[in-house]
Amino acid sequence: MSISRRTLLRNTAALGAFAGAGLPHIWIKNADLAYAAGGEIKVGVLFSLTGTTAIIEESLNKATLLAIEEINAAGGIKGSKIVPIVEDPASDPATFSEKARKLVVGDKCVSVFGSYTSASRKAVLPVFERQNNLYWYPTLYEGRECSKNVIYTGAVPNQQQDEFVPWLVKKFGKKFYLIGSNYIYPKEENNYCKKLLEKLGGEVVAEEYVPLGHSEFSSVINKIRSTQPNVIFSTVVGDSVVALHRQYKAAGLDPEKMPMASLTTSENEVAAMGGEAAAGHFTSAPYFMVHKSPENEKFVEAYKKRWGADKVTHFVSEACYFQTYLFKQAVEKLATSDLTPPNIRDAVKGEAMIAPQGKVQIEPENLHTWLWPKIAQAKSNGQFEILVEAKEWLKPVPYAAYPGQSCTEKGLVEKS
Amino acid sequence: MDQFIEQIVTGLSIGSILLLVALGLSIIYGSMGIINLAHGEFVMLGAYAAWVFHTYLGLGLLASLVPIFLVVAAFGWVIERYVLSLLNNRPLDTILATWGVGIMLQQAVRLMVGSELRYVQLPPALSNSMDVFGIPVSSYRVFLFVVSIALFGATWLLMNRTTVGMKLRAIIQDRSVAASFGINAKRVYALTFAYGAGLAGLAGALVSPLKSVSPDMGTGYVVDAFMVVVLGGVQSLAGTVASAFILGELSGGIAFLQNDTVAKAIVLLAIVVLIRFRPEGLFTARVRA
C-alpha cells in the first residue's frame, strides 16, 4: 500500500482528533487526574540495591515497602492503593538521576522516596525541581539546602549536635579529635561542631578526613594516641565505621577514657562490627531501636516479621517508615482531582504524627522535620542504651552554621 | 623516637596485610601472565567463607583457615579449568573473562546472603594488645605479620624446592619445551591458579576481623594488590615482599604526617612515576625470553 500525501494528511487529522478526545491530559490543563488513575497512586522507591551503599540502602527500601504494605492492607488512601515502583540506582549518582527521571516523567509517580548519600540527593535534585515533583529524603544530612521539592525527614546538624557536643564536653573534656570520611557531609558537620566548641571553649586537636571506603586506620590510631583527645568525634561513614571501631578495639584503646562520639553509627553498623567493638561508644540520633514507645514496638515487630528476626531498625529506616505515613496523611487531605506533587507538598506542611521516635512534624518554613534528639551508648549485645532524651522536640535549622542565612517558604533568604 | 618506632611498626603491619592480599595475585600474574581481575572477589569469598563457618558451623576463625583455603582454591581450580584454560590463558581474553567472573561472584553473593555488612569475630585469644619494642600493638596485627611471612616462606619453598614448583618454573621459561619433556602444563596451570586463589581466600578471611565483610569489598583490595605486584616487579616473589613493605611504610608514614587521602594520592603518583622510568618494577627475575 502506498501512502499518498492526502491519506497521510487525513490519517494525521484523524489521529489528532482521536488524541484530542481520547487523551485529554495532553490538552486539558487538569491533566493530573492521571496521578490517581484507576484507584492507584504510583510512588517511586529509589534506594540502591547493588553497589557500595546497598549495604544500608537495602534496609531503607525494606522500611519504605513495609509502610506501603501496611497502608494498603489497612485499605489504602481513601480507597486507592499505593503502588510502589522500585528502581535500583546502583549507588551511582548518574544512575540515580536517570532513574529519577524515569519515575517522574515515564511512570508519572506523584512522589519518590529515596537516597541515602548527599551525592545522590544532589544528583536527583534538578529532576525534581524542573518537573516540580516531590522527593522524600529520609537520611540525616549536612543541612545547607533549601529546596521546595524535597521533604527532609532526617536530622540536620543542629538536631544531632546541639545537645550532644555540650554533653560530651561536660562529661569527658574539651579536647576533640575530628575524624570523617572525605566528602561534604562530614565537613559540614565538623564545621558546625567547631562552632559549638568555640562557644564552649573547646579545642580541636586534629581534623582529619579519610577516603570513602577506607579501611586501614593504624596511622589514625597512632595520631589519636599521640594527641590524647578527650573525645573522638566521628563522622566516618559506611564500612569505614566498622574498620575504625574494630581497629580501635584491637589497638587496646579504652572507650571509657577516650570514647568515640558518632553521628553515623547505627544498629546496622554495630551489627557488622560486633557488640564488643562498639561497646562504650556514643551516638546521637533521633531514634534508636531500643526506644520505648508503643509505636516503636509495633514498628520493630512488624519489620522483623516481614524481613527476618535478625534484622535491625535504625535511625534512617525509621524515617523511611514514618515519612511514608506522612505522605499518606497529606494525600488524604486532598481531593483525588487535586492530587499533584505541589499540592502534596502544601498539604504536608505542618502535618504531624506519632512516629516510633515520638511526635514528629514537618516544619512549614523549610520542609524539614521536628525531631527528638537522643544520646545513646552502644552495649556489647549490639543494642544501644539511651542515656539522654531531649525534653522538647527540636526545630530543624538547616542553616544553623550560617547565621546570615535561613530557609523560608519563599526560598533561601540572606540577611545582610 | 617512640613515635618513629611506632610508625615503623605500623608500616610493617600495613605492609603485611598488603603482602597477604598480593601474594596470590603475584603467583598467578607472575607465573601464568594472567591478569586476574577476579582476585578481589576471591578475597571476598574467603571473608564470606569465614563468616559462614563461624555463623553456621560455629567454627572459630583460626580453626577454619585450612578449610577456607581449600574451598576457595577449589573455586579457583574450577574457574581455571572451565573458563580460563578454554581461552588458552590468552592475556587479553582472560582479563575480560576474570572481570566477568568477578562481577558474577559479587552478584551471586549479594543474591544469596544479601548485601549487608557481615561480622567475623576476632579470635578471642588475639584480641588484646602486646608490647613490641615498648610500643603497644594489637596482637592480631602481630599475628597477621607472622602469618604473611610464613605464607611467603611456604610459597617460596613450593616454587623453588618442590617438583611442582620446578615444573612451573620450567613452563614459565618455555612452555613448549617443557611440554616436550612430558610436563602437563594444563595441570600445573590449574594447580597454580587454585593455589593463588586459595591464598587470596586466606587473605580475605584473615583481614575480615579488622575490616568489614561486604559483597564489593574486593574492589579495594584488587587495586592494592596490583600496585604491590607492579611495583615489586612481575615474576619476582621477593620483589612482592619488598614492595608490600615499602608501600606499607610509605602510606603509613604519609598518613601520619598528613592524612590518608593525601597518602593514597602520593603513593599512587610515586608508583606511576617509578613505572615510567622502570617499567619492569623494582625487582626483576632474570628470565630467558
What report would you give on this structure?
The complex is a heterodimer of chains A (416) and B (289). Chain A has 416 residues and is an alpha/beta fold. Chain A has a domain at 159-285: Response regulator (Rossmann fold, 3-Layer(aba) Sandwich). In chain A, 42% of the residues lie in helices and 19% in strands. Chain A is built from 15 helices and 17 strands. Chain A has helices at residues 5-22, 24-27, 54-73, 93-106, 118-131, 157-161, 164-171, 184-200, 218-227, 239-250, 267-273, 275-278, 294-307, 315-332, 341-348; strands spanning 40-46, 81-87, 111-114, 135-137, 150-152, 175-181, 203-210, 231-235, 260-262, 282-285, 352-355, 358-362, 369-370, 374-378, 384-389, 405-408, 411-414. In chain A, the strands form 4 sheets. In chain A, strands 7-6-8-9-10-14-15 form a 7-stranded mixed beta sheet. A 5-stranded parallel beta sheet of chain A has the order 2-1-3-4-5, with helices on both faces. In chain A, helix 3 runs parallel beside helix 14 (315-332) and helix 4 runs parallel beside helix 5 (118-131). The longest helix of chain A is centred in the N-terminal third of the chain and has 20 residues, at 54-73. Mean pLDDT of chain A is 90; it is low at 18-32. Chain B is mainly α. Chain B has a single domain, classed as ABC transporter involved in vitamin B12 uptake, BtuC. Chain B has helices spanning 2-32, 39-57, 61-84, 91-113, 139-161, 163-173, 175-180, 185-207, 218-232, 237-257, 260-277; strands at residues 129-132, 135-138. Chain B has a two-stranded antiparallel ribbon. In chain B, strand 1 and strand 2 (135-138) form a beta hairpin. Chain B is globular and about 60 Å long. The model of chain B has no long low-confidence stretch (mean pLDDT 90). The interface between A and B is large, with 41 and 45 residues.
